[in-house]
Amino acid sequence: MSIIDKVLELAKSRTDSAEVFYSVSERTGCTWSSDKLKLAEGKETSGIALRVVTDGKVGFFATSRLDDPAMVVDTACELARFGTEFAGDFVRESVPAKIDNYHEETANISAATLVATGNRIVGVSKERNPEAFWDAKLERITVDSTLANSNGARVSFKKAIFDGHLFAQITREGDVMMVYEFDEGTTLTNQPDTWVEILAKKLSDAKTIVNLPGGEYPCILTPKAMNVIGPVKMAMNARMVTKDLSPWKDKVGERVFDSRIDLYDNGLDPTQGATQPVDDEGVTSRVTPLIEGGILKGFIHDLHTAAIMGVAPTGNGMRMGLGGPPRASFTTLTMKPGKKTLDEMVAGIDRGVLIDQVMGAHQASMFSGDFSVSVSLGFVIENGKIVGRFKDGMLAGNVFRMFKDQVVEFGSEMKSADIYSPPILFDGMTVATAGG
Amino acid sequence: MTNEVTIIPDVRDRMAEALNAGADASEVEIRLENIESTTITFQKDSLESLDKGVSVGGCVRALVNGSWGFSSFNSLDNLMGRVREAVDIARALGPGQAKLSVQEPREDIVPVRILRDPRSVPVSETLESVKKYNDIMLKSDGVVSTYSTYRHFHYRRWFMNTSGTFTDQEKMKVTLILMAMVLDSDGMVQEGRDYLNSMIDYDVVVGAGESAEIAVRDAREIAGAPKVKGGKYPVIVNPDLAGTFIHEAFGHLSEADFVHQNPDWQKILTLGRKMGRDFLNVTDGGAVPDEGGTMKYDDEGTLAGKTYLIKDGVLSGRLHSRETAAALGENPTGNARATSYRFPPIVRMTNTAIEPGPHTLDEMLSDIEYGVYAVKPHGGQTSLEQFTFGAYRGYEIVNGKIGGPLKNVSISGNLFKTLENIDMIGNDLIFDSIGGCGKGEQAPLPVGTGGPHIRIQDCVIGGEA
Known about the structure:
The structure holds 2 protein chains of 2 kinds. Chain A contains 10 helices and 22 strands. By secondary structure, chain A is an alpha+beta fold. Chain A has 2 domains: 200 residues, PmbA/TldD superfamily (PmbA/TldD fold, 2-Layer Sandwich), CATH 3.30.2290; 122 residues, no CATH class. Chain A has a 7-stranded antiparallel β-sheet with strand order 4-3-2-1-5-6-7. In chain A, α1 runs parallel beside α2 and α4 runs parallel beside α5. In chain B, 20% of the residues lie in helices and 40% in strands. In chain B, strands 1, 2, 3, 4, 5, 6 and 7 form a 7-stranded mixed β-sheet that branches. A 6-stranded mixed β-sheet of chain B has the order 11-10-9-14-23-20, with helices on one face.
C-alpha cells in the first residue's frame, strides 16, 4: 500500500473527511557567475500533506517524512480539534482538463543541455558586451503530484517546467547598472537565446545617462515592471473579499477599470508553468473571467471561499509548495493585449519614460494601491526615440487609478511576470528624481 | 536539545562514513536538518490557518577541480550515494576557479538558550492568545478587518566536512505580526501593523496587548495622513528603520560574492576607501546574542565573529565565505549561510548594525526647516549601488519639530552619495530581528539589524506632486 493510501485509510477511520496531497519534484540547475560556469545542482523534494475535517473544522499537517503515517494522521487530527472552519466539501470527482502542458522534451532536458545552452548565451553575450559581467541560471523542474480524498476522488498529474535568467552587470565608479531577463514556462527551450538579443538592445539603449527632472510623464511600464499590480490581485481574490479587504467586494457588475481592459485567470494556458489539469484541491482547471470591458465579473475561489459565497469553485485552490493548505491564488493572471509593438508605442511619445525594472513594490500599501517604487532601469523617450537611461528615480502612483483613468494604450508583446501582460502606456505618471 | 536525534540516529557516524565516498574531491560537506514550524493566522473574525510542518532533509556540496556540485534530498537512506552524486556532477562541469580558504577543524555542539520553548506550549494556549490580540484590534472603532499571524520555527542542523569540522546547532524564532485595517476618506483600506519576535522566549512574543493597540493607532494615523510629496528632503531615520537602511543600502554591497570575480568592483571597493564621516561605523556578526542572524558557526563550519565593514568612516572589511575569502586573500568571516538544506550556502549578512554616534535627536532636528522623520521598517531592496527602503509611518519635520503624520514614505538613493550624506548619528541603539532577507532564490533568511537615529541629507522620497 502506498503512503497515500495508508494515510488516507487511517485518516478516514478517524475523521469526517480527509484529503491527501503527495508530491515529488526534481530540479536540475546550472549557475554561471561572472561569466563562468560555477555550480550544478540536483534537487529532490518529496512530501505529503494531509487535510482532515472533523465537525466542520480543518486540521492540516505537512511533512517530508514518509515513514510514519500514524504520526501524520495524529498531528492533523489533533489540530482539527482547534482548526479553521471549512465551509466546502472535498471534490467528489476530479476531472483533469485536457491541456497539452506536459512535454517529455522539457522533462528530459539534461544537465549537459543546460551547460551547453548557458555557455552559449553567456559566451555570446560576453563577446558582444565585454565590459559587462554575466550571470545566468538555467533550471529544469519536474513535479509529479497525486491528490486523493475520502470522497473517492483521485487524480495524478505531472508538470515539466524550464526556467532561467540572464543578468548583466556593468560596474563603473558612480554608475552600476544591472539588467536582466527571465522566463518560466513549459516549452521555452529556445528562450535563452532571445534574452541575449533583448539584453544587447537594452545595454545599447542604456549607454547614455540622461538627466530627467522630476515631474509628470507619459510612462510605458513593461510586464517586468508591473509588479505594483499586487493590490489589484488582492482585490480579485475571494480570500480577501470574505475578509472585507477587497475594495471591490460589492462591485461585481460595476465598471472598475478602463473599458478596454479584459483580465482573466487562465488556468488552461499550456505554455505557462503555473498551469496544471486540476488545481491542488482537484477542481478542474479553467479560464475565469475577472474583468471584461472594464467591468468586474467575479473573483478567484478555492473550495472554501466558493462555498461561503455560494458560487462554483474556479480551480484556484493552489498550494505554495507542500507546506501550506490550498488557498485561492492565481494560476496565470492574464491581460488582453493591444496591437502596437513596443517600438511603435515609443515612436508615439514626444517626451516620456519607459520603465522596465523597479524595486520596492513590496513596500507599498498592501490594499490601497498607493505605491512608490525605485526605478532600477528606466529610459527617457524624446521625439519618439529612446535617448538614454535616467538614474535614481522613483515612480509613484495608485495602481487602481492607473488602470481606471490613466491608460493610453496597450502593447502587443506578452510576457509573464507577476501578471501575463503586454507593455502598457499610462499618462501623467509621477517620477521623482535626484535631479529635482 | 530535544528529541530530533531519534529522527536521525547515529547522525555523526553516518555523516563521517558517507564523506569517505568523496575522498577524491577537494572538499565535501554534508548538512542535515530537522525543521519544525507552526503557523496560526486569524483574519477578521475567524481562524484562517492553523498549520504544522515537519521537514527532514539534507544536502551535499562537493568541490572538484574548482567547480561545485550540489545535491539536496529528503530521504536520508543513501548518504553515500548522495555524496557520489554531488562529486560526479561537480566533476562533469570541468575545471573551474573556486578555491577554499583553509579551515581549522572543530567539533562543537551548540544548544540554543531557550527560556520558554514554543514547542512545549499547547496549541490551544497560543490560539487563545492570538485570538485575544486579534479581538482587541477587531473591536476597536473603525477597524474593518484584521490579520494576526503567529509563527514559530525551530531547526537543528548537523554539518560535517572533509576539513574535519563537525557542528551540531539549533535555532528558534517566534514571531507575531498584528495588522489592523481601517478605511480612509476615499474608502480605500489602509493598514497599520506592529510585530514582536524573539529567538529565545515564547513569552516575549505572546504578551502583545500593547502591539494590538499600536497597530490600530497606526492604521488610523496612516488613513488620515496626507501622502508625502515626491522630492529631495533631509530625513531622520529612527533606530528601528536605521537597521533596515544599512542592511539594504550598504550591507549587500559588503557581500564579497559579487566582488571576488569582478575586478571592476574590487577597484571601487578597495579597503581603505572613504565612505562617510569619521563617526560612521558599521558592523556585521553572528556572535551578537539572541538576534535573527545569530549563529555560532555558519553553514561552512566557520566560527562567526564580528566584522567592521566601515570603521571611522573608512571601508575596512567585507563579508566572506571560504571561497570569496580565498579569492581575495582575506579571512572567512562566518557569513556563508543557507536558508535550508535545499540550498548551498552563499554570502549573507548575519546581524548588521550602525554603531551609535555622538548626536542627539534634538540636535538632528534643530536646523531642519522642512524634512521627514521616517519610522518603522516596511522592507527594502537593493541593486548594490542603488537601494530603496520603506517606512510604515513618517512625520513631517517643520522648523526643527516633529509635526503631523505622512503616509507612504519610500526612500531611494545611491549608496555612495547617501553614506556621504549621513551628517549625524545618534547616541542610541536598537536591534531588531523581524526581517527576513532575500537574495537570489533564498528567502527568507533570519537576520538582525540595528542602528541609532541617523540623519541623511538630500534623500529622494517618491510621491505624487
